[in-house]
Write a structure and sequence with these properties.
- This protein is mainly α.
- It has one domain.
- The protein is built from 2 helices and no strands.
- The longest helix has 78 residues.
- The termini are far apart.
- The mean pLDDT is 83.
């Protein structure tokens, strides 16, 4: 004996409602996972920004030190050139004499 089963309108409504609820739950979970991923990316971007600011500050500090060292080097070179011009003997002779004096006991 075959039995014909026909879905009642109430069953169809319940199944449709149940499917819609499942779909909403899945969509909600997916949305929350994407929001969590975006929050993590935002946190990483904040850390990168802090690191970049620190790098810029470090670069500025290094540049200031290099500029100061370059000014000192230029001043020393200028002083050395002036001394060499003031000395009658060649600079290499003066340097050799100074080294010889240091070596002598």
């Amino acid at each position: 004996m075959e039995r014909n089963t026909v879905a009642s309108p109430g069953m169809l409504i319940r199944e449709t409602t149940s499917a819609a609820i499942r779909k909403k739950r899945i969509s909600s979970r997916l949305l929350w996972s994407r929001i969590s991923a975006l929050e993590e990316v935002q946190s990483q971007l904040d850390m990168m920004e802090n690191l970049l600011v620190a790098m810029v500050e470090l670069h500025q500090d290094i540049s200031a030190c290099v500029a100061e060292d370059m000014r000192a080097a230029a001043s020393t070179a200028t002083t050395g050139t002036e001394l060499r011009q003031d000395v009658d003997a060649p600079f290499s002779v003066v340097l050799t004499d100074a080294i010889d004096e240091l070596k002598a006991p």
